[in-house]
Every structure is written in structure tokens, then in C-alpha cells.
Amino acid sequence: MDYGFRSRNGQNFFQIDSDNKVLNVAASGSYAIGKTPTSSTTITTAVITYPTPITTTEAPHVFLNPNNHGMYHTLMQMGGPGNWTGFYFKLHLMAPFNSTDCSGRWLVATFRSTSPPNEYDLRLRNASNEQVFVGADNLLVMTGFPINEGWTLDNRGGEVSGIYWSGYQMPWTGSYEDYFLASTLLGGKIYNGNTTLDTPCGFHAGVRATLNGYVGAMVSSEGGTAKNGRTTFAARPMRPL
């Protein structure tokens, strides 16, 4: 470490300094998707615009948390380096998600500290004089370790419009307060050996012991041959949003 304050916690992990950065909530809100109480038709795409652009070079980290259930895919960031303006994602058009309310909450986090300091506070800067931490930041607390190969086949799935969807699940925290890192998990399609298809992920109604997902195939014999393989983890804001 060259700049900052370094400490270790009870598990001997490094905490905040200029090298070991922390994720800070930059914006948050709610989204409407699916067959909501106020929509006469199914909303298939949720579009989020940030109150002000996020000016980091790297894309921000997007987290989603359905109110009850929701299965989503194709999350795309809007804008570009230094001017990230929002994101959008799509609804998995498979029962029951295509006929129910799949709305929820979102937050976006960056490794840059943007909060103004309180009157009495700790502020850390790096070698470029960028603020990397201030006590007023609302940090993300990781409540589940990153997982990228924790998927196992379950008994969910089925055929929709000529695509055979195999269901997968991974262990989750059991808490409705936890968001999942969606910008990596939903960030694109996967090649399953024969075709390239979407990989929707999210939660089933009333279930938070597992995070669920689907991988599609064009023929039934290819079902269950591919997994998502992308990294995600559970997190929640340190303070209420």
C-alpha cells in the first residue's frame, strides 16, 4: 500500500486502502417489468437512466433484486467510458414470468468514492489524488462469496417456441435483502456447443435459498450440456437506500 489507511479484520482480511478498493453505491431505484398492476400488456424490457452520468472509465457494477420473482437476460450498459448513462435488461418470456409482475430494485456501484465528507470524517485518496473512500459512502457488503461454477441442474425447464430450456440453480443466501451482481451474470449470450442463446437468471417466487437460471438449446438432446459460467455474488448496501 502506498496511500490510505490499512487495517485487518478478525479473519485477517485487508480492509480499505488505495489498493484494496471498496464498492460504493452510486445510484439506486426501482424497475417495472412483466405484467405489472399498472400495465395492460407485459413489459418485456426495463430501461434505467441514471440521475446523472457516472464518469468512471470502467463500466459500473449493476445489481438487481426482484421484489418476489423475476428471470432476466441481456443486460446492456448505456453510454461509454467516462459517461455511463444507464442500462437495460430483458424479461425471460417463459411461464410464469411472462404473465406476472417481475419488478424489483436496482443499484449501481463503482470503485470511486463520490460522497461529500461529513463534518467529521475519514477521507482517503490515491496517488492521483482521487478520493477512494470517505466515511459518508454507502458501501456494498458482500453477503455471499463470488461463484462462477456453482450451478447444478434442477427439475425446472421446458420447451418454448422451439427452444429447450434446461434449469440450473446455485446456493443463495435466503434473504430478500440481497442483490445479485447482474452486469456480469446477464451480460450476454453463451455458446452451448451448437448454438448461441440467452442465459436468463433470477429468482422463482418465494425462493431465496437458490439463485436460478436457464440455458437454451435448439434441440432437446443438447439440454443440460452447458452452464452459465459467469461470476456473480450477493451483496447489500451498508445503509438503507
Radius of gyration: 19 Å
Number of helices: 1
User: Got a strand count?
Assistant: 17
Largest sheet composition? 7 strands, antiparallel
Distance between the amino and carboxyl termini: 31 Å
**Which percent bin holds the helix content?**
under 10%
Basic shape? globular
| Number of domains as seen in the coordinates | 2
Helix-strand sequence: EEEEEEEEEEEEHEEEEE
Strand order of the largest sheet: 2-5-4-15-16-11-10
Mean pLDDT reading: 85
Low-confidence stretches: none
Approximate strand percentage: 35-45%
Reconstruct the topology from this structure.
Layout (H helix, E strand, L loop, with lengths): L23 E8 L13 E10 L6 E6 L3 E11 L2 E9 L12 E7 L12 E3 L5 E4 L5 E8 L4 E9 L2 E9 L7 E3 H4 L4 E2 L4 E2 L3 E3 L6 E8 L14 E6 L4
Antiparallel strand pairs: 1-6, 2-5, 3-6, 3-12, 4-5, 4-15, 7-8, 9-17, 10-11, 11-16, 12-17, 13-14, 15-16
Describe this structure in words.
By secondary structure, the protein is an all-beta fold. It folds into two domains: 24-142; 147-229, no CATH class. The chain is 2% helix and 45% strand. The chain has one helix and 17 strands. It has a seven-stranded antiparallel sheet. It is globular. The model has no long low-confidence stretch (mean pLDDT 85).
Looking at this protein, list some descriptive labels.
single chain; seven-stranded antiparallel beta sheet; globular; mainly beta; 17 strands; 2 domains; 1 helix; six-stranded antiparallel beta sheet; 241 residues
